[in-house]
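ok trying again, last paste got cut off:
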Amino acid sequence: MNPSLLLLEFMTGLASASSLFLLAAGLSLIFGALGIVNFAHGSFYMLGAYLLFWMTRGDAGSFWHYLLLAVAASVVIGAAVERIFLRPILRRPEHFQILLTYALLLVIADVCRLAFGSDYKSISMPPGFGGPVFFLGAPFPAYYAGLVGLAAVAGVLLWLFLHRTRYGLLVRAVTQDREMLEALGINVPALFTIVFALGIGLAGFGGAVSLPLQSMSTDVAVDAVISAFIVVVVGGLGSIWGALAGAFLIGEVQAFGALLLPEFSIVFVYLLMALVLLFRPWGLLGRAPAVRT
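nice, full thing came through this time. structure:
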């Protein structure tokens, strides 16, 4: 097989993995800190794309400026959703959270359908990213390379936030002992709002930067949340590094599966997930649950 074709497929899988990482990292961050399995996560991915389309009016000429505004709007919306809807049920049984977040998924999709219509939304490539770049002599879409770079920058900034800032230290601490932080006088509810807003911002960012690559409709919300859960199941729910590893594996499996057996490409993804669940049910980089004696 042509080495250039294999390299192109690898880079295509890497670009797909970049979008999946932004989506799944937000889901893992929210679960790690709040313990909420956010079924509405895919709707915020979709919302980020819709906000960017609305701001640009479908014209990519001001793509980068409006991308920042779309992410900022996603963060604000995420903070409002946590404060209004999720905070009252954080201490209730898990099925309350599952039902509420699933209801939010449906509501946000219907609101977007009413506000923006049910037709597919797309925009052209941003200026300067319409042509190819060459990687080891093989042509590769410039925007794919840009997407990989954006995801890498986002991942580094997220790591710096979690490991080099006071709020990041508190976020990691709250996953271990919420009661101790409350006893020390830390405003844990405000911390939860920050974490949830950041996770939603990552999802909105993932959706917005994916808009030049694929047409978006309200149906993408369900597909996105399924993809996010597959990634975190493979990588480990609650682990940012797990989200990175899972996104990379899923992106490459999809790319090479489509190359080898296009009609069965999705089967390879679910087979990978099944194998992980069979041999390491807490994910490749997730933590095994503590055994109570």
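cool. The first helix runs from residue 3 to 34. The first strand starts at residue 132 and ends at 135.
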